[in-house]
Design a protein that fits this description.
globular; six-stranded parallel sheet; alpha/beta; 24 helices; binds adenosine-5'-triphosphate
Length: about 600
């Protein structure tokens, strides 16, 4: 049976009631029932709700994630234990060592390792032939070498990663009909939650397990499939009825969460997708204010409005935890976070916020700023100088600096046979003197345009085959953060305070304190709030600028739809006219939403 469910339609309840129906009405033995979810938290919640519903303290029904279920199968076949599962930190250590061997010298090591890990996962999950695979995170030859090195390391230590669990399970069940038969007899009834996010390998294993009786009960919302980037295949759900022509389809079209204006607005957006089951969702709650859209001059004005509305809500007796601010990418709310801290509004981040000040481009800029400051005392540090001496190119070698502090005379003497290098050294010293007299914003402008750091980044992007705007965007963002500070000292004191506050908040997050939720649209899935702010609803952000194909655009629209349907009562959709100093267009999703 295919249960096609809209947002807020009570999918968990449907699954738990179905299990109760199987056990209490159809008298199926609970041990024959398997309920598969995507996360441990979902499995736990499902089990708890089932126990509550049946008024019992334990059950023989199996509630587990795909990985837990597949690992159980491997455990019995091969005697695997917890020690055989590769831990995340070990995985990154193995990959780091494999990357070092290839001498790739990335600017951002964590980013490279993260994208290689994702690609390895993709190759394994899609059962692709490594010999024919063209890599995206680095050159194909290095990727193949890293993949093999990593895999051999796993074999040598008799370990498997999370992707291997699926691959090995698939291979085992394919080859050993006796083992497959035993599991088919054990789990005669299989229920799958969030089916829209299933990947090919998971589906193939579930199909094998469900045969020959095919007692499959799947629940999902094709409009909420948002994990294509990590291998989810929403088309599997769309073609389920072709794989199982006898399957019945049930539509859960009542939304118990959102008010009618929110449901209607969300439907107007999602109806622009072509790859979907057409359905009409209704709201149980017919009352509610309309969705509020506003286009602000810039983010400063936008964030001031968000903060103002949160404060008003709080003054009227509301809780911070009723409110969520949702955004497309986890780097988006940096400025907002600073504003919330300044205003003393507690918040909880559902995703880690990568610190802009840890980015190599920002480190370069700060090396210049520090040199400009230290030059006044004649104490420019060697480490700062080394960081940027050839950004832009000045034809300098590390050997020209032996002492901890830079001596400009010694540098000029070292290169006295190369007048073109001396010219650049003198220009740098002069530029640093100028920078030292400017405010942080003025100095950033100077470093970027007069020192030539922007030109350097463009050449670098060209050489690395990256989009220059991605790198220049970091400088744009830094300029926004620097605005208003009179001196470097003042700015750095603020950066230190924010770091400390974020650390404190991370600790507090574990305790259940009241706070506004800050979340990416992805991480907001499954959650609900009385009031939701969708910020920066602009082209290039949502939909994201990396969208290339129609399928990507449909995924972006689904993400927007998921975010909208988190709101129970009040939904604000905010856009800006100017983003990082440049003109910005309102998101097409806002146009679709307003097009009544
Ligand atoms: N039959 C029902 N009657 C009244 N309220 C319900 C019913 N089913 C669910 N709800 C309420 O509606 C809200 C949404 O339910 P739930 O979170 O289970 O939906 P969902 O289908 O998982 O949503 P989504 O996929 O959008 O995350 C919850 O507040 C829940 O308590």
């Amino acid at each position: 049976m295919l249960v096609l469910a809209g947002p807020g339609s009570g999918k968990t309840m449907v699954l738990t009631w179905r299990v109760r129906y199987l056990t209490e009405v159809c008298h199926i033995h609970p041990g024959e029932i398997l309920v598969i979810t995507f996360t441990k938290a979902a499995a736990r919640e499902m089990k708890e709700r089932y126990l509550k519903l049946t008024n019992s303290s334990s059950t023989a029904v199996s509630f587990g994630t795909f990985h837990a279920v597949f690992f159980q199968i491997l455990k019995l076949a091969y005697g695997y234990g917890a020690d055989n599962i590769l831990r995340e930190e070990q995985k990154y250590q193995f990959l780091r060592e494999a990357v070092y061997k290839q001498k790739l010298e990335p600017d951002d090591e964590a980013e490279l390792i993260g994208s290689i890990a994702a690609e390895i996962s993709k190759v394994k999950n899609d059962r692709m032939n490594l010999q024919e695979y063209k890599a995206a995170s680095c050159d194909t030859k290095s990727f193949t070498a890293i993949f093999n090195e990593y895999d051999n390391r796993l074999r040598r230590s008799n370990q498997i990663d999370f992707d291997d669990m699926l691959v090995y399970c698939y291979e085992l069940l394919k080859e050993r009909k006796d083992i497959l038969g035993a599991w088919q007899r054990k789990f005669r009834y299989i229920l799958v939650d969030e089916f829209q996010d299933i990947n090919r390998l998971q589906y193939d294993i579930v199909r094998m397990l469900a045969a020959p009786e095919n007692n499959l009960f799947i629940v999902g919302d094709d409009d909420q499939s948002i994990y294509r980037f990590r291998g989810a295949k929403p088309e599997i759900m769309l073609h389920f009825e072709e794989d199982y022509p006898k399957a019945e389809r049930v539509l859960l079209d009542m939304n118990y969460r959102c008010s009618q204006p929110i449901v209607e607005g969300a439907c107007r957006v999602i109806e622009h997708n072509r790859q979907r089951f057409a359905k009409k969702i209704q709201a149980k709650n017919q009352q509610g204010p309309p969705i509020l859209h506003h286009q602000f001059r810039d983010q400063d004005e936008e964030y001031a409005c968000v903060i103002d509305k949160i404060k008003t809500y709080r003054e009227k007796g509301g809780s911070y935890r009723d409110v969520a601010i949702l955004f497309r990418t986890n780097t988006q709310p940096r400025k907002l976070v600073e504003e919330l801290i300044s205003e003393g509004i507690p918040f909880r981040m559902r995703d880690t916020l990568p610190n802009l000040y840890d980015h190599w481009i920002v480190k370069d800029v700060f090396a210049y700023l520090h040199m400009a400051r230290d030059l006044k005392k004649g104490m420019v540090k060697r480490s700062d100088f080394l960081q940027v001496m050839n950004r832009p190119r000045r034809y300098l070698g590390r050997e020209c600096l032996e002492d901890e502090l830079v001596s400009w005379e010694a540098l000029l003497t070292w290169y006295d046979d190369k007048p073109w290098v001396c010219e650049r050294i003198e220009k740098l010293e002069k530029d640093l003197k100028m920078c030292g007299m400017l405010s942080p914003t003025g100095a950033l402008h100077y470093i970027r345009n007069i020192i030539g750091y922007e030109e350097y980044l463009k050449e670098y992007a060209d050489y690395k085959g990256r989009k220059p705007e991605d790198l220049l965007g970091i400088l744009d963002e830094l300029r926004e953060l620097a605005a208003g500070f009179k001196s470097l000292e003042e700015w750095e004191a603020r950066i230190t305070a924010i770091r400390a506050e974020l650390l404190r908040q991370a600790k507090e997050r574990e305790q259940n304190t009241d706070g506004v939720s800050l979340s990416t649209m992805h991480s907001s899935k499954g959650l609900e709030y009385r009031i939701v702010f969708l910020i920066d609803a602009n082209e290039g952000i949502t939909p994201h600028k990396r969208v290339l194909f129609e399928e990507d655009m449909e995924e972006e629209r689904r993400l927007f739809y998921v975010a909208m349907t988190r709101a129970k009562e009040l939904l604000y959709v905010f856009s800006v006219k100017k983003l990082y100093g440049k003109k910005a267009d309102r998101s097409r999703f806002v146009d679709e939403l307003l097009d009544e």
